[in-house]
Amino acid sequence: MRMLFTPPCLCFSRNRHNTIYAFLRHLYQVCIFLLSALPAIAQDTILIQDAHFELRNPYNPESVWQSAGLRPPFMLVAGAGETDVQPHDGNQCITLSLSGNEWAGINQLLADTFQKDSLYRFSLWLSHSNTFQSKASDSNKMIPFKAPVCLAVAGHRRAEGIMEILAVTPPVSSTVWRKYVIYFKPLQQGLNELTFFAFPENGISSPPGNVLVDRVSKIVKIPAPYPDSLTEISGLALKTERIDASGIPLANPSFEYVWFGGRPQYWETLIFEGPDAARHINKEEIMQWYNKDKRCLPFEVEPSFIKKAAKGKKFTALFTTKCDLRLGLATLLPYVQLQKDSAYSFSLSLSKEKRWKSLYGSGNKYKNPLRLRIWAGTQEAPRTELLAVSSPVTHSDWRTYSFELYPTKGDYDILLLEVGFLSPYGRPYDGHLLLDNCSRLQTVRIR
Fold it and tell me: Where do the CATH 2.60.120.260 domains begin and end in the chain?
């Protein structure tokens, strides 16, 4: 056999020559393989610069981290005595604050881009301060920022104005540093900028609060096939246990914040005629019904009974009338749509009362039980696709109802909670349903 390569150091006996040569040839092939694989290995790992926030602060224009949002990030220095929490690793960490819908954030331009529908993983350490203070949004007065808030992770293609929320953690309330592992699957191609920012639990607004961030790991692309437990996620945060953060939060999910007249904020009150109409009746039609017979309108003020809410201090109610009018509450989803051919889980607490006599002057007795109907739609047609219907709610205690939602006709940015009769095409009647404690729309499967 002809030798293609003979190392100059082979000064051994002929009996050992073949063995040594085979070993060196194998070693040579391994080295060539590793060298060829280096670009692929590098491509599957995205390094975060200044991951411990030790080099420069976000106010420096040369910093790899840049300030984002309407509120400035705060650099917490070890031993400064500014808060009850010290940096987890090193001498500095970042405090991101939130007040109302004004948030603080930091972002960094990445050396590589995220690939659409690929699975990525990274970790970071989060904490919360009970003593952090900052300036109020409407004045220079220093006020406490004590509320727990979420941390949101977003990707950008800033040149094209494209942004995607990659993951949102649950509210961070512990003053002890905890490691969070974030999994995400981008739905957009080529995101090359990463942003961390304080995010309200309800997706809309929050009392003054804060979240502390330190020690961000490198971002690793997980090769397919994925483990079974990770195949259907779009954003997942792990703490000491598995916590799904991929869901879409609802604004005012427990109906704690109300407008004058008792209707919940961030939920629009709509009246529908019949079981199938996609469009709700307008103000002129409402006045026509009122002039015809005000008892037909399913409006009601605060209930005449005292009932403890399932969560918090308040709940809300929906009504139907014998004129075949039924009430619904619609909310605009904060930052992402329900996607066609995807799956979501959703739960809320439902109840009713044995008696409910109208205090609105109509004389209606809304004592009869109803079903909850969950719709997805658009702002023009909130009742586009019926996703789920509950069983009849006949009990006076709060019970949790869980639903699996599968949009099949399109993408939607409106969620509608509406009441219906026990028989959708039967004789209409006066009835009521009590609602509280809505969950996130948890992502089960993304198309």
Answer: 46-243
Please count the CA atoms within 13 angstroms of the CA of 271 that sit on its side-chain side: 20
pLDDT on residue 11 = 36
107, β-bridge pairs: 66, 195
Pairing of strands 242-243, 178-184: unpaired
d(CA 196, CA 201): 15
CA 253 from centroid of its chain's CA atoms: 13
Q: How many CB atoms lie under 10 A from the CB of residue 381?
A: 15
- Residue 243, C-beta contacts closer than 8 angstroms, at least 6 positions apart: 169, 170, 236, 237
Q: What pLDDT, on a 0 to 100 scale, did the predictor assign at position 312?
A: 84
Backbone φ, ψ for residue 40 (5° rounding) = -65, -40
Strands 147-148 and 206-214, sheet pairing: parallel
Q: Where are any strands of DSSP class E within 2-89?
A: 45-46, 66-69, 74-77
* pLDDT for the residue numbered 80: 74
> In CATH, what class is 268-445?
mainly beta
Q: Which residues contact 307 (CB under 8 A, 6 or more apart)?
A: 315, 351, 353, 434
Please give the Cα distance from 346 to 400 (Å, whole number): 10
> Number of C-alpha atoms within 13 angstroms, CB side, residue 401?
23
Q: What share of the chain is helix, strand, coil (3-state, %, to 5)?
A: 10, 40, 50
Q: Which CATH number fits domain 46-243: 2.30.30.100, 2.60.120.260, 2.20.25.10, 3.20.20.140?
A: 2.60.120.260
Residues near 321 by beta carbon (within 8 Å), at least 6 away in sequence: 295, 296, 297, 298, 364, 428, 430
pTM of structure: 0.50
Q: How far is CA 215 from the centre of its chain?
A: 23
Report the C-alpha gap between 127 and 183 in whole angstroms.
19
What is the predicted pLDDT for the residue at 427? 86
Residues forming a β-bridge with 238: 181, 242
Structure confidence at residue 160 (pLDDT): 76
Comparing C-alpha atoms, which of 107, 114, 106 is closest to residue 192? 114
Interior angle at CA 91, CA 89 and CA 92, nearest 5: 85
- Strand locations in 101-177, DSSP E? 102-114, 119-127, 133-135, 142-144, 147-148, 150-157, 162-168
Residue stretches of the chain with pLDDT short of 70: 1-43, 56-62, 225-247, 257-262, 278, 283, 294, 298-306, 334-336, 357-364, 446-447
Closest Cα to residue 330, out of 264, 416, 444, 405? 416
8 Å CB contact between 88 and 177 = yes
User: In the structure encoding, which two tokens stand for residue 395, read together?
Assistant: 């009990």
Pairing of strands 92-100, 268-273: unpaired
Confidence at residue 163, expressed as pLDDT on a 0 to 100 scale:
82
